[in-house]
Amino acid sequence: MNRLSQAMAWPDTDEAPTIPGVDVHAASMHTGLASAAPLERNGYALLDDLESPVVRSLVREMEHFQARFMARTRPVWKDGFKHTGDRLDNWSRRWEYPYCWWNLLDRDPGKVLDAGSGINFFPFFFASGGWDVTCADTNPVLEPCFREANRLLGSSVKFDVAPIEALPYNDGSFDAVYCVSVLEHAPMRVQAMDEFARVLKRGGRLCLTMDISLSRDCDIKLEDAALILDQLEQRFEPVHALDLSRPSNLLTTDRFRQHESWRLSWRAHKNPLRRWISQMRHGDGFRSLAVLGTTWVKTR
Fold first, then answer.
1. Taking a C-beta distance cutoff of 8 angstroms, is the pair 266, 287 a contact?
2. Per-position DSSP letters for 46-108, written without gaps between them
């Protein structure tokens, strides 16, 4: 175990508990679970995926890690801080984080970039697995937060203030890049994909998730997604076949509007003008979204 793994271990054990009948570490090594298919595709997240053995196992492992992470870094999570330590409460993150983790597990831990990171347990989860993690985000407030989290955990997750459209790294710096629901907020998406291709080594892998607007009242609409996928195909090779079918069991925000509405992360803006604009655009703030996950490899 590395120093961070030791710091985050549960008392009297080096392992987080598992779901009865499912070996989390076997799941993490791509062995013993034929039902890995929900995470081995380029396509939409499905509601049924959340009940698959591999996703349930990984979410359980991540929940335990996140709880320990929040306990050890409690001084970071001050009242009024924009970011919340609990990201697995989100309607889509319970699928997106296992998706990215699973699709990078078949390679030896190397240098990985969390593009548009915010701050949460996930880059530290990678670091505990032996990865050399760098995070990039445009919010300078996060810099002291990462310093404090690293101090409290004895970790060395790096952080740079940088947009994903202009990353401050040399060509071929990373073995992997993951970007979780950030592209929908990026003003220059094509440039971001150029940057992902540039900073990845040949043979490096990109895991990308993005929210798709089903109600067509926010980014990313389906035609935007089609353009993004076309641009990705010009720069990378897909790891899995692309399947854009949308069956009735699609994982969407609509599923949580009546039940578990706490999983929908929208909050009223504190700024009165922004709050008024949001209400004009979205009414009660609800947006009908699905989530699309894709994995790519740089071959040239």
1. yes
2. BGGGGGSHHHHHHHHHHHHHHHHHHHHTGGGS-TT-SS-S--TTSTTHHHHHHHHHHTTTTS-
What is the tally of structural domains in the chain? Answer: 1
Amino acid at the residue 206: L
Q: Which two tokens stand for residue 66?
A: 């996140």
Q: Which residue do the tokens 């009948």 mark? A: 21
CA distance 175 to 268: 39
Residue 142 to residues 30, 138, 205, 285: CA-CA distances in angstroms? 34, 9, 26, 26
Question: Rounded distance, CA 130 to CA 121, Å?
Answer: 15
Whole-structure pTM value: 0.85
pLDDT tens for 156-187 read 999 999 999 999 999 999 999 999 999 888 88
Tell me the C-alpha distance between 18 and 20, whole Å.
6
What's the CATH code of the domain at 177? 3.40.50.150
Residue 250, token pair as written in the block: 């699609």
Q: Are 125 and 2 in contact (CB under 8 A)?
A: no
222: domain range?
Answer: 3-297
Give the bridge partners for 297, in sequence order.
Answer: 205, 237
**Residue 82 structure tokens:** 């924009």
Q: What is the DSSP string of 169-231?
A: S-TT-EEEEEEES-GGG-S-HHHHHHHHHHHEEEEEEEEEEEEEESSSSSS--HHHHHHHHHH
Element (H, E) at 273: helix 272-282
Q: Tens of pLDDT along 34-74?
A: 456 789 999 999 999 999 999 999 999 999 999 999 999 99
| DSSP H helix total and E strand total for the chain | 10, 9
CA distances from 212 to 28, 44, 75, 223, 235 (A): 28, 9, 35, 10, 21
